[in-house]
Specification:
One of its GO terms (molecular function) is G protein-coupled adenosine receptor activity. It is a multi-pass membrane protein. Belongs to the G-protein coupled receptor 1 family. Pfam families: 7tm_1 (PF00001). By secondary structure, this protein is mainly α. Helix content is 64%, strand content 3%. The N and C termini lie far apart (67 Å).
């Protein structure tokens, strides 16, 4: 153990980094071989090495945490204090805001604390990769903060995409079946689906620990987050390392379903818009107007477009991390890329409130009333 700590201290001074999928025991055993110098070489040179880069990373994390927490607190307050928001769509927005805020309250602050600890003290903390050998993996491995933070981040990511999927389905019902919307989409059903998505998302987030004893959670210096790491068997990955593919498979399946439903909704919107334009120009006879008699409302159409933008934003932020996970499963290690991939996904937690502010007039009105409660209380808002 002393040679291991000595190696860590020496490498810390040069800013060396460790692979996402490296076992602490593998480092110690590899240090005795002739290729130890190559195995312990720095893996990044841009975003993770040096005091200046670490300081800039901490400033970025603090700013992001503040933006996530403040933005989602405002979102929750607006949706909870306006009567018009107490709808199935409003409950889904609250679920999405809670998942985003948990990232800003738990995940990002833990990375800030760890990074500051690494800059102030020379000894790495117990949960730092390579800081202490893990004798066991799975649910029975030694408990440390990453055993909480890692599943929270993964679970909140899955909650976000499942909630966006539910929001898309809810809007599609409002567009395709406007007369049956209140019957098909009820508050009780929506709350049940929200609870189901939270339970299923966090169960999936714990899947690598539940299904295998060859995984543990550790703070990774490349991504600056708590990541799943397989326990190496000599110089090889464990045979069940592909369990991590469950994460991108789940997200891309829901994203694909969300995209399909959005296409169906937008096709219907385009058809209604074209028919309405032809009616206004007199190109269609009066009998053709029956098809537009029960068209979706303007608010439903705009909400569908907003959800489409949310889907695009989440897909763009999740795609880099999916590529990173696939690369690690097949044996590639991209240290600099992992930092950008994980934090692009984390930054998505403050994008939703920005999209609402730009797209949702009712949300903007709720924010205005929230900061002018002495003039016009939120409960007196009129649609």
């Amino acid at each position: 153990m002393d040679p291991l700590l000595a190696n860590l201290s020496e490498l810390w001074g040069t800013g060396a980094l460790v692979s996402l999928f490296r076992n602490p025991n593998h480092t110690e055993s590899g240090s005795a071989g002739p290729g130890a110098d190559q195995a312990l070489a720095p893996l990044c040179t841009v975003c993770c090495c040096g005091l200046l880069n670490r300081t800039l990373a901490v400033v970025f994390m603090v700013t992001l945490a503040f933006a996530i927490v403040v933005g989602n607190v405002v979102t929750l307050t607006v949706f909870m204090q306006t009567r018009q928001s107490r709808t199935p769509q409003g409950y889904l927005k609250v679920s999405l805001a809670i998942a985003d805020m948990m990232v800003g309250v738990l995940v990002v602050p833990f990375s800030i604390y760890t990074e500051i600890s690494l800059m102030v003290t020379s000894a790495p903390p117990a949960w730092y990769q390579g800081g202490s050998p893990a004798s066991k993996g799975g649910m029975f491995g030694p408990w440390q903060p990453c055993m909480l933070i890692g599943p929270v981040f993964a679970g909140c990511t899955f909650v976000s995409i499942s909630t966006i999927f539910l929001m898309t389905v809810e809007r599609s019902v409002a567009i395709l079946r406007p007369l049956h919307k209140d019957t098909l989409v009820t508050r009780r059903r929506t709350l049940f689906l929200i609870l189901l998505s939270w339970a299923g998302s966090f169960l999936l987030a714990m899947a690598p620990l539940i299904l295998s004893d060859n995984f543990t959670l550790e703070y990774n210096e490349c991504s600056r987050m708590c990541n799943y790491a397989p326990l190496w068997d000599g110089s090889q990955l464990p045979p069940d390392a592909n369990i991590l593919l469950l994460f991108p498979a789940f997200d891309f399946t829901l994203l694909g379903g969300t995209l399909a439903v959005n296409i169906l909704s937008f096709t219907s919107i385009q058809r209604y818009t074209r028919k309405r334009k032809l009616l206004s120009e007199g190109s269609l006879g009066p009998e053709a107007g029956g098809g537009c008699q029960h068209r979706p409302s303007f608010s439903d159409i705009k909400a569908a477009k907003t959800i489409g933008i949310l889907t695009f934003a989440f897909t763009a932020s999740f795609s880099p991390i999916a590529v990173f996970v696939l690369g690690n499963v097949v044996g590639y290690t991209w240290c600099n890329f992992s930092f950008f991939a994980f934090w692009i996904l984390t930054s998505n937690s403050c994008c939703n409130v920005i999209i609402y502010s730009v797209r949702d007039q009712r949300f903007r009105k709720g924010v205005t009333l929230l900061f002018h409660r002495d003039r016009s209380p939120p409960h007196s808002e009129k649609s």
